[in-house]
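Case 449 in the screening queue. Each case pairs one protein sequence with one candidate compound; here the compound is NAP. For every case the pipeline is the same: read the inputs, emit a complex structure as tokens, and attach any notable structural observations.

Predict complex for case 449.
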Amino acid sequence: MTDLQASNSTQYRRLRVALLGAGAVGSQVADLLLRHGDELADRAGASLELAGIAVRDVNAKRDVELPAELFTTDAESLIVGSDIVIELMGGIEPAREQLLLALNSGADVVTANKALLATHGPELFEAADQVGASVYYEAAAAGAIPIIRPLRDSLAGDRVVRIMGIVNGTTNYILDRMDTEGADFAEVLADAQRLGYAESDPTADVEGYDAAQKAAILASLAFHTTVPLDAVYREGITQITPAMIDEARAAGFVIKLLAVCERLTVDGAESISVRVYPALVARTHPLASVHGANNAVFVEAEAAGSLMFYGAGAGGVQTASAVLGDVVSAARRHIAGGVGVGESTRANLPTVPIGHVITRYQVTLEVADQPGVLASIAGILSDGGVSVATVVQTVEGPSAGSETDGSATARLIIGTHRAPEQALSDTVERLASSAVVDRVVSVLRVEGE
Ligand code: NAP
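Case 449 output:
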């Protein structure tokens, strides 16, 4: 074969593309590359030759039919000599080693691997810089939704103030069904597993680890700063009950697992906070209308104002769209020559602990329904520097196991004004140990106001 190939009537330089992995995403990428080769060549200005597909088991059944002769278990031989290497295996090793090999062999790399980027991103970016190559990763956060390029390129002239993302489809599906059907967490999770929305081990999704990896990636881009995964504060959704959903609704909120990346000023110094937790979002906020397994990323920038990016956060063929966009970009760069742009991390802002974050809170307490209780609680809050905005009280009958000795129990739902997280958590500790409080039922932060 020559280095030039014809697409329609145009002669293009041929680029050798190696694909690592042919699972949910990889098989769709291979299929689209093979079926739309001519169109992609016209867009990229290069003919994209799928040189091979490295997998663990060449005989495994694939989601789409692909030519058997493309499959190999020898990833290294496939990588060396390729112009573009697409990594869709997932996991840290051998993905990390093989991408380093690809970069050091002069290839541009495309990956959807958020776990790898959130933990070893700087090592890969550094390796790319050394050889003037590029790492493309549009599919690594929020699947098909274009969010990496907007943050990296379109908003490069602006200052991002805050990002609030629904970046995990599984948890959004669970919380949405809890909200619309009044179902409980375990019931919806079991359903989600049956329907393929949740893994058999759902920990990465429901405990917020997956969202934290995406938050680290988005914050790094938005604030031109390397944000390590261990700087991301994380809570999952396993503690969310139907009662919390009902109380949220009564107060005009919906509960969403959010990845929040925010620019802050702490002690006069510019810094950032990156956190993942279930939060109360006003039902009028655009993020409240993100249903099912969909994702959305709400970006606030100084000049641009508010922007919302919405769509499918996962799915084989949907994610393949983002991967192929990266392949076209990589091909264009290869053809144009010059060095890759590299990551912008010069701002180097410190990531502050959760205690510095300032938001409103909704605190739900179970207390004895007795005179003076409300005043005692108001006193504890005020002493802690937390000011009360609203109080809703509901009275229930004697609560089993409560310390009220058969007397009625009141449920207090306290909405606070904005307060630092440290002040709020110290105050909640004092409330929990106070004689007038039976139980701190829940503490939820309010976001998006
Ligand atoms: P998947 O279905 O589990 O497929 C993984 C593929 O990689 C399989 O073909 C597997 O080969 C191959 N593989 C795994 N380990 C390998 C090894 N050591 N050597 C050679 N091949 C190996 O994964 P996926 O869902 O397509 O996800 C791929 C990547 O995309 C992950 O980083 C994931 O986080 C990311 N992503 C996925 C989605 C989604 O909706 N699925 C969305 C956004 C991002 P065998 O088939 O032979 O076992």
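Case 449 observations:
- The chain has three domains: 2-144+317-336, 148-313, 357-447.
- The domain at 148-313 is CATH 3.30.360.10 (Dihydrodipicolinate Reductase; domain 2).
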